[in-house]
Structure formats: C-alpha cells, structure tokens
Specification:
- It is a single chain.
- The protein is built from 14 helices and 7 strands.
- With about 325 residues, it is of the alpha/beta class.
- The chain folds into 3 domains: about 40 residues; about 230 residues, P-loop containing nucleotide triphosphate hydrolases (Rossmann fold, 3-Layer(aba) Sandwich), CATH 3.40.50; about 30 residues, no CATH class.
- It has a 7-stranded parallel beta sheet, with helices on both faces.
- The radius of gyration is 21 Å and the shape is globular.
Length: about 325
C-alpha cells in the first residue's frame, strides 16, 4: 500500500486508480491512504456540479474539463452514478459520455457508484477527492447523481457549487421548490438553444432578486458551527445565471472563467478557509457516525438488533426506548 501511495504522489495513473478501488472497498484502506496523503492535500479547487437528470451535467463537465485542460491545468473528475436498489450495481454511464476525455493527458476520470448513499455522492467521495488532490490535480470536478432536491451534500464537499438547470425541466414554481437551487454559487442554464431557455433564465434571475437562490446558512443547511454565515458566504459575491450549450461548447469558456473568479474571491475574502473548516466538521461528523454504527454491529448481534426491530414493528416498544436500550447494550 505504501508503494502505491508514493506512486500516487508522483501522479501515476494506475496507482491512483488502484488506491481509489481499495478505498471504495475498505474503510481500513481509506484510513491508511488518507493518513498518508493528507499532508499533501488542500491545494485543489473542488467544483461541484449538480442538477436534475437530463440537464446535461456530464456534457457540461466534459466541456469544462476540456477548457481547463487547454489552460494547462490537470483535471480530476469524479462522476457519481446511481446504484440499483436491488442489485447494488451501477451503469457508470458518465464514463461512457466522457470517452473523448479518456485519452487526454492531464485528465483523470473516475466513475463511482453511489451504493445507496443519499445526498448525491458516494460514501468514499471525500477520500477520493483527497487522493486526486495529493496526486497534483489542480481542479477536481465532482458530478452528483442527479436525483433532485436532496442533493445538498455536494455543497459541503466543494469550494464552488454549480447548479445546472435546463429549459423544460418544470415551471417556475417547481424551480422555486427545488432545494438544490439554494446551494448554488452560480446557476447555469444549459441547453440554452432550446425553446423556453429565456423563460428559465428570467425565472432564476427573478428568484435571485427575491433572495430565494444562493448560499443560505452555508448552502441551505443550518449546521451547529462556530463559523458565521458571513464567513462562509461573504455578501459581495453575487450569484449569476449563465447560459451554455455544452454540446456545442458555447458559454463554456465564460463559465470556466467564472469558476476561477469564485476561487480567487474565496481566497481573498477568507471564505476558502471557512469552507475548509465546515467541510472538515461535516467529515468528522460523518466518520463518527460510521464508527458508531460499526461499533453497534460489533457489540450487538444481528439477531438482537432484529428483535428490537420486531418489537418496534409490533408496537411492543417505541423507537426511542429501543434506541435507549441499544445504547445501554453498547456501553456495557
């Protein structure tokens, strides 16, 4: 493992791919990899791309990667695909849609199955971001599953979050209801050559003026944090609505420039470190929850846990009392 991690630091593509596979399949491997690589992280600009299915996220990521690559940057792409709730498998179709990037020097693409994780990301996404960061990728594009309103985890993973909309995805009222709009650092109307594109742009701009779009309580979430909302989202960053036709490359250069501008803004305003601290807080919370669940599984047999499930289902025990009893058993 250590030899592989040394090769990751050297940018060896095969080593990076092997380490990511190990991380996806083993918490122990994730612990080892992150512990070794962590001192070399913190330089990459993590850009999240989210939005409803059919908005053209993969094509947009493809275009952005080409643009950044033409600027001489090394680009890492993490594309999260939904897993089947029955077989657990995933099509990993994003990799298919980005085939023209596969042979491009300085671009690394990794598709990941969500494996049942909610919030639009895979469980190992944070660790994989660190691997690519330590390997020297300057911009890491993270594309979420695209399941809709629940995809807010990307906001606490990325420095810059782009929310993609497209004409014909629903009326203005539906857009207002979509919680993912609140996590946007910038909004992008893709497929802007389609009928109704200007109506979508106008609806989003109207919501901007009404204050219903953009970072609220750090991307729409209220965390128990000592960091103020002003630190996380300095007021003088204005969320913009940009238009692209990703299939034709239209508007991609302007969007890439906007991403650079947001990075500079975060660094100069102190927002970069504030978001790093918030991301660290969320990651610690996630790891603690996973550690607790692992301890519960070790301490209490599956038969005993199922007995509590049966008791709750049969109304012999309420859920709160069941949890109290489980906690007591773990502590014994």
């Amino acid at each position: 493992m250590n030899d592989l991690l040394v090769q990751v630091r050297e940018g060896n593509i095969r080593a990076i791919a092997r380490v990511i596979t190990l991380i996806e399949n083993s918490d122990t491997a994730a612990h080892t990899a992150v512990s070794y690589l962590y001192p070399y992280t913190g330089k990459a600009h993590v850009v999240g791309i989210t939005g409803p299915p059919g908005s053209g996220k993969s094509t947009l990521v493809n275009g952005l990667a080409k643009q950044f690559s033409s600027e001489g940057m090394h680009i890492g792409i993490i594309a999260v695909d939904p897993s089947s709730p029955f077989s657990g498998g995933a099509l990993l179709g994003d990799r298919v849609r980005m085939q023209d990037l596969a042979a491009q020097e300085g671009v690394f693409i990794r598709s990941m199955a969500s494996r049942g994780s909610l919030g639009g990301l895979a469980r190992a996404t944070l660790a994989v971001v660190k691997v690519l960061d330590a390997a020297g990728y300057e911009i890491i594009l993270v594309e979420t599953v695209g399941a809709g309103q629940t995809e807010v985890d990307i906001a606490s993973t990325a420095h810059t979050t782009l929310v993609i909309e497209a004409p014909g995805m629903g009326d203005g009222v539906q857009s207002i209801k979509a919680g993912i709009l609140e996590i946007a650092d910038d909004l992008v109307v893709n497929k802007a050559d389609r009928p109704g594109a200007m109506r979508t742009v106008q609806a989003l701009e109207m919501m901007l003026h009404m204050g219903q779009v953009g970072p609220i309580g750090h991307h729409g979430q209220q965390y128990e944090t000592a960091i103020t909302n002003e630190e996380l989202n300095p007021r003088n960053w204005q969320v913009s609505v940009l238009q692209t036709v990703a299939t034709e490359g239209e508007g991609i250069a302007a969007l890439a420039q906007r991403v650079h501008e947001h990075r500079d803004f975060l660094v100069n305003s102190g927002g970069w470190m504030a978001r790093e601290r918030e991301r660290s807080r969320k990651e610690l919370s996630q790891l603690l929850q996973e550690r607790f669940m692992a301890r519960l599984v070790t301490a209490i047999s599956s038969e005993d846990r199922e007995a509590y499930v049966d008791a709750v289902a049969l109304r012999e025990l309420d859920p709160y009392s069941a949890v109290d009893k489980l906690f007591k058993q773990i502590g014994e």
